């Protein structure tokens, strides 16, 4: 540390440069919540304006409102809200005027917990330290009374409900009814903002709750075009102008520029973009290449991206198949044959064993021959890995003998063929047998 | 620390709130659902009925029940509150004997039995457990007390007070029949046939036949409601209000919706206001139309258009599989085979199974598809949550670009 300070703004040592670079890039790539300003600004502008107006009016005019932000996962709902709040909080009036309550459907799993949390965050009078006193009924009555006593002159309360759809599953939707009801009557000014990824969330609401909700919906989509996507990619890797070593920074940024023009890299990004447009996946993709950068590996190479893409898109089933023994692989092939013959009808162990026996007698000539208990053990192992599962309706609880329980194979033909090709030292007779599928 | 010794309150703001300034801001303040007017337009008949019912019982010193039903947003609670306000004025002019008003709401109770506690607390200020409160109330309404004043009890969201034994409902409707009780119960709920459908015979017979139904507002009534709030304020073009009223009346007849749409339309008008001119920005048809679109339209088609290529292909594969099999349900394995064909046709690289199940669960999370839990793997069943035509319509233009 002391060394870095003493060298000042001039050239840093190479090692220091790279550790600084790592710090900057990792901050961006690993932190999910870090705002990404390039992302389709024009599209975000309208919803942002709407949200800003809504919250602002609650604080300045005392107008109560309710709204829902709806968009697929990774579309930047929480980011939008937190950036709006951050902007508003720069204003002192707003900070004095507004109390915030943040709830999450995954944490506040029922109204009892949610109410305690609200009471705690509002610091109402029945809170001592961080503990809330009184029963559930008391808490509700107390909170409603507090809100009812409020008027246009009391502080505005901003309720943020993340995973809003889970709140709709609470009993009677009491909490939602009461929040919306307060927002629609002459009490303390409150704004209720729900965030959810379900498009049909309004249909979940009971009719009287739905009637009280003001039906403002703000929709966010992953609407990046590929060019914008590339720009995001670049902005995630480019070093900021404040970087201490200017020469290093310039060199690195030029390198990033050249990367985003490289047809190899763009084609990989294109594939990524085709499967999922959200920034979160892009960041996940960049984790490995970023972690690799060090003085002995100073550039992002094409091979890094290829490998990261391979890891990200790897098929988990065929990877699992690589770790099986030859006997287990034989059983999988046998089961695949059965599924093909009987078109996805369930089979049992006895059928698989017979099929395996046929293979041993006709092709393998006792090389792969094992006793029945050994085969059964292998079958049970496959079952434990959930490559084979009990067919629907069959008693999973262990009714019936295990040799005769109807089962289904969870491996597609293409996955099996892929795995056989890559299987280390696969016996030729098994390969031949699989190829006759 | 006893809870009942504390004063619940939300702190006051250190700053003065702004009064609404411009025409549009004033309009918005008046259009807010909470700004309930002194007298509700278009509910004069219902007001009269309830008023005369309660007034008659108060003058006689007897008790009775009334059941009020209607879909949400038709002004039931507001009308009853207005009746009681008017009666209170009469009492203040000493034209009527004094009465006590108690209000409970089924939705604001954590448990139906809590109703007893709340009524007792409102009547006497005592705090008691629900069972104890029921006993005290029972005694109170059974013993004669010559100087007791009448009580008007408003029970909102009655259907939530249902319990297996229906003891809460039974009590609420039984007490008014006692000669000494002097209790008038006004029960509000949404469904017209609630007494016949949910209540036991002995409960519904005690509720009696004094019933009233609030019909959904027609478009003329909605128009009048908005106009009455806008009286003396030139903010809307007449046609704009009419459009909002007609749209809402066609769907639900919910006054809250009409007011919300108009309020949103004023916001849109404000946004569209040219910065040069200071005033005379009227809310016109296009603003209302945009507001209606925002509130009522389904975003599913937009969501499909913004989905990634593989997600769109997956939806197409689902439709293709449905058309092939003629069923409305397919397994993930079947869809994945169709997906592979579509990828090869379009010259797109085929995703691995793991990727594809990721795509499937993303679509499932936003409820474009209804999928089983991912645990059932290849045999997980997939259904569409959108109509097939919508999918094809949404994807028609994108496939060419």
Automatic annotation (TrEMBL), chain A:
GO biological process per UniProt: DNA replication initiation
Keyword ATP-binding assigned: yes
Protein keywords: ATP-binding, DNA replication, DNA-binding, Nucleotide-binding, Nucleus
The keyword ATP-binding is annotated on this UniProt entry: yes
Annotated Gene Ontology cellular component terms: cytoplasm; nuclear origin of replication recognition complex
Coiled coil segments of this chain: none
Intracellular or extracellular location(s): Nucleus
Highest taxon listed in the record's lineage: Eukaryota
Ranges where the AAA+ ATPase domain occurs: 63-223
SMART domains the record matches: AAA
Molecular functions per Gene Ontology: ATP binding; ATP hydrolysis activity; DNA replication origin binding
Quaternary structure (record): Component of ORC, a complex composed of at least 6 subunits: ORC1, ORC2, ORC3, ORC4, ORC5 and ORC6. ORC is regulated in a cell-cycle dependent manner. It is sequentially assembled at the exit from anaphase of mitosis and disassembled as cells enter S phase. Interacts with DBF4. Interacts with POLQ.
Role summary: Component of the origin recognition complex (ORC) that binds origins of replication.
Protein family according to the UniProt entry: Belongs to the ORC4 family.
Name by which UniProt lists this protein: Origin recognition complex subunit 4
Organism field: Branchiostoma floridae
């Amino acid at each position: 540390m002391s060394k870095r300070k003493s060298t000042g703004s001039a050239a840093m040592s190479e090692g220091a440069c790279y550790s600084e670079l790592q710090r900057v890039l990792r901050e961006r790539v690993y932190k999910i919540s870090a705002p990404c300003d390039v992302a389709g600004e024009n599209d975000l502008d309208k919803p942002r304006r709407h949200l800003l107006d809504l919250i602002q009016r609650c604080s300045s005019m005392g107008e109560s409102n309710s709204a829902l932000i709806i968009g697929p996962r990774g579309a930047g709902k929480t980011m939008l809200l937190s950036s709006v709040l951050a902007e508003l909080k720069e204003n002192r009036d707003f900070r004095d005027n507004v109390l915030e309550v943040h709830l999450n459907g995954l944490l506040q799993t029922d109204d009892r917990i949610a109410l305690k949390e609200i009471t705690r965050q509002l610091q109402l009078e029945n809170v001592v330290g961080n503990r809330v006193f009184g029963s559930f009924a008391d808490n509700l009555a107390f909170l409603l009374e507090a809100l009812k006593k409020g008027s246009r002159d009391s502080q505005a309360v901003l309720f943020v409900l993340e995973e809003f759809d889970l709140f709709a599953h609470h009993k009677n939707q009491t909490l939602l009814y009461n929040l919306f009801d307060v927002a629609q009557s002459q009490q303390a000014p409150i704004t209720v903002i729900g965030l959810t990824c379900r498009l049909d969330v309004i249909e979940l609401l009971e009719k009287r709750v739905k009637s009280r909700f003001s039906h403002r919906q703000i929709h966010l989509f992953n609407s990046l075009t590929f060019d914008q996507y590339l720009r995001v990619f670049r902005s995630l890797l480019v070093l900021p102008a404040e970087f201490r070593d200017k020469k290093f920074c310039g060199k690195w940024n030029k390198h990033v520029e050249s990367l985003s023009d490289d047809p190899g890299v763009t084609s990989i990004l294109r594939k990524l973009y085709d499967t999922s447009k959200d920034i979160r996946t892009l960041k996940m993709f960049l984790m490995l290449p970023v972690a690799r950068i060090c003085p002995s590996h100073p550039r992002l190479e094409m091979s890094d991206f290829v490998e990261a893409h391979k890891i990200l898109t790897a098929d988990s089933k065929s990877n699992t198949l690589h770790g099986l023994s030859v006997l287990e692989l034989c059983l999988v092939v046998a089961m695949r044959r059965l599924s093909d013959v009987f078109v996805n009808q369930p089979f049992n162990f006895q059928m698989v064993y017979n099929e395996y026996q046929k293979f041993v007698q006709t092709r393998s000539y006792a090389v792969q021959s094992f006793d029945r208990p050994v085969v059964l053990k292998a079958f049970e192992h496959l079952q434990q890995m959930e490559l084979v599962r009990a067919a629907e309706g069959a008693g999973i609880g262990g009714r019936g003998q295990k040799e005769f329980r109807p089962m289904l194979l969870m491996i597609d033909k293409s996955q099996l063929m892929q795995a056989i090709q890559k299987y280390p030292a696969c016996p030729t007779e098994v390969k031949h047998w699989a190829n006759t599928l | 620390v006893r809870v009942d010794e504390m004063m619940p309150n939300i702190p006051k703001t250190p700053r003065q709130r702004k009064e609404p300034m411009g025409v549009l801001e004033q309009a918005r303040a008046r259009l807010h659902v909470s700004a309930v007017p002194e007298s509700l337009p278009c509910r004069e008949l219902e007001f009269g009925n309830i008023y005369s019912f309660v007034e008659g019982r108060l003058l006689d010193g007897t008790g009775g029940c009334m059941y009020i039903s209607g879909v949400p947003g038709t002004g039931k609670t507001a009308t009853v509150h207005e009746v009681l306000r008017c009666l209170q004025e009469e009492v203040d002019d000493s034209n009527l004997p004094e009465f006590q008003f108690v209000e409970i709401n089924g939705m604001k109770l954590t448990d139906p039995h809590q109703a007893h506690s709340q009524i007792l607390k409102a009547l006497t200020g005592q705090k008691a457990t629900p069972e104890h409160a029921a006993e005290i109330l029972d005694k109170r309404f059974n013993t004669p007390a010559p100087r007791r004043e009448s009580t008007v009890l408003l029970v909102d969201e009655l259907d939530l007070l249902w319990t297996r034994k229906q003891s809460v409902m039974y009590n609420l409707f039984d007490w008014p029949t006692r000669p000494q009780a002097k209790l008038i119960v006004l029960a509000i709920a949404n469904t017209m046939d609630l007494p016949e459908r949910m209540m036991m015979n002995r409960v519904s017979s005690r509720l009696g036949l004094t019933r009233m139904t609030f019909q959904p507002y027609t478009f003329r009534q909605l128009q009048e409601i908005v106009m009455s709030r806008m009286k003396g304020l030139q903010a809307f073009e007449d046609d704009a209000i009419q459009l909002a009223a007609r749209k809402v009346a066609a769907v639900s007849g919910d006054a809250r919706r009409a007011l919300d749409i108009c309020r949103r339309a004023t916001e849109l008008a404000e946004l569209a206001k040219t910065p040069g001119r200071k005033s005379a920005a009227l809310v016109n048809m296009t603003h209302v139309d945009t507001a209606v679109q925002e509130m009522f339209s389904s975003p599913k088609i937009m969501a499909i258009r913004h989905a990634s290529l593989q997600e769109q292909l997956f939806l197409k594969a689902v439709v293709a599989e449905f058309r092939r099999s003629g069923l409305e349900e397919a397994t993930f394995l079947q869809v994945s085979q169709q997906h592979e064909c579509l990828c090869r046709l379009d010259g797109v690289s085929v995703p691995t199974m793991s990727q594809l199940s990721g795509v499937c669960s993303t679509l499932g999370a936003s409820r474009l598809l209804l999928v089983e839990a991912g645990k059932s793997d290849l045999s997980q069943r997939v259904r569409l949550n959108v109509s097939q035509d919508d999918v094809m319509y949404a994807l028609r233009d994108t496939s060419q670009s």
